Amino acid sequence: MKDSWEKLQSNPNDPAAQKAFEDACEKVQQDKHAMTVLNDEPHNVNGKTCKPGEQSPLRRDFNEHWNGVYEGTHLSTRQRLLEQANKNLRPGEKPYTLDDIQVAQITNVKDSKPKTPDEKSIRCTLDQDVTYRITKRVKKVVDGKEVKDPKTGLPVWEDVKGSMEDISPDNKFVRNSKGEPIIGEDGKPIEEKGTGARDIYNQEFYKTQKGDYPYKIGPDGKPVIDQDACNRYAEDMDQSVNDEHSAESYGGGQEDIKPATRGDMKGKPYKDVVATSKAMEYKVNEWYGIKADKKGISPEARVAYKKEGMRQLTKQYRNQIVPVINKYNELANNPNPPVVKIPDNVRTGFEIMERVGKNGFTPADAEAALAEMNETPLTIVQKMSSILESGQKHMPADLKQKVNEWVATLPDE
């Protein structure tokens, strides 16, 4: 990729040079070993060595390329989700507009200053997780009675101010004249392919990248979009569309996203702490277990997946475990010994995996060190889940009161 990037710097208006760089970005995105090299190994650009964790023009332009791809994909996906929503309006409901269909945005720290492309270039993101949302509507009720439109007699719907709900990533079911899902020979409802947010996104992502949809011949002899090809490509490129029920989504819906991702709300009890802890486990297992255990992948890719799994664990430790424990102890006036403590084996496991990628320390080295403790990354993250769950479920009564008093001071936003 570096060669094509350098040629593009010399010929920024050359379509062939631009296409070569875009193709190189695609290959790197598909190759997790290459992504690891891009993030974690020094590279020389413009006569300067860019080290891991430092700003890099190469990583910046790689990120900017994908930002453009995602921006175009999001727009076309939102437009199609809008069309679909307006085809399925409930009686009396007004049509939605494009502003009603949004990409969920998560901010890690309240009022954090937006970073410039150069500031973001210290690292490239390995995957893309996206959730689409639609304005939440309810029937208007006055004095306990539904309001009807005097002209049509139909219910009046109103937007819930500032509230949105996730659009399901799953396909809709084929239904009969009574509106009941039709059951297939396997005993499961028949899905109408291409109707869920995930399928639509995968189609639009493929088209954004390739210029058109992939087609195959359907049962009627006419060309139809090859959904399986779109899905395979999206998986190869580590694209995923989720909602609040997905395995890697934090807790009990939107209200649990804030304590999971905002620095000023760390320690606020989760509506569903079990789901949140399982999401934390999944984010590690997705890379270290599921992807690293895939058959047919190269040894380099397997190492890269394991490395990313360990990185996810250290990220969850720093972002989910430490701030929550610190908040509990802060509210308890930092007693000695602390009211809640991270076990030594969990802390040591984190420190071992934090070393991966530094001074030649490899995932295999980390695995060996963990094995001496009778641990693995998966057992460590399971213990982290237990810390999060037990800390909330079994906190002393006096601490629980202080937590509730603190929560009452938090903003509603």
Could you tell me the strand content as a percent range? 5-15%
Q: Which ranges are low-confidence, i.e. pLDDT below 50, for 5 or more consecutive residues?
A: 107-111
> What is the residue-averaged pLDDT?
89
Tally of DSSP β-strands: 13
Strand order of the largest sheet: 3-5-8
Whole-number count of domains: 2
Number of helices: 14
What best-fitting shape do the alpha-carbon axes yield?
globular
Q: Profile the largest sheet.
A: 3 strands, antiparallel
Which key phrases capture this entry?
single chain, 413 residues, mainly alpha, 2 domains, three-stranded antiparallel sheet, two-stranded antiparallel sheet, 14 helices, 13 strands, 11% strand
Structure, described:
- This protein has helices spanning 2-10, 15-30, 32-40, 57-87, 117-120, 197-210, 227-236, 257-261, 273-291, 299-331, 344-354, 363-371, 377-393, 397-407, and strands at residues 43-45, 48-50, 101-103, 128-130, 132-139, 141-142, 145-146, 157-166, 172-173, 191-192, 215-217, 223-225, 239-241.
- It is globular, with a radius of gyration of 24 Å.
- The strands form 6 sheets. The chain has a 3-stranded antiparallel β-sheet with strand order 3-5-8. It has a two-stranded antiparallel ribbon with strand order 1-2. A two-stranded parallel sheet has the order 4-13.
- A hairpin with a 2-residue loop joins strand 6 and strand 7.
- By secondary structure, it is mostly helical.
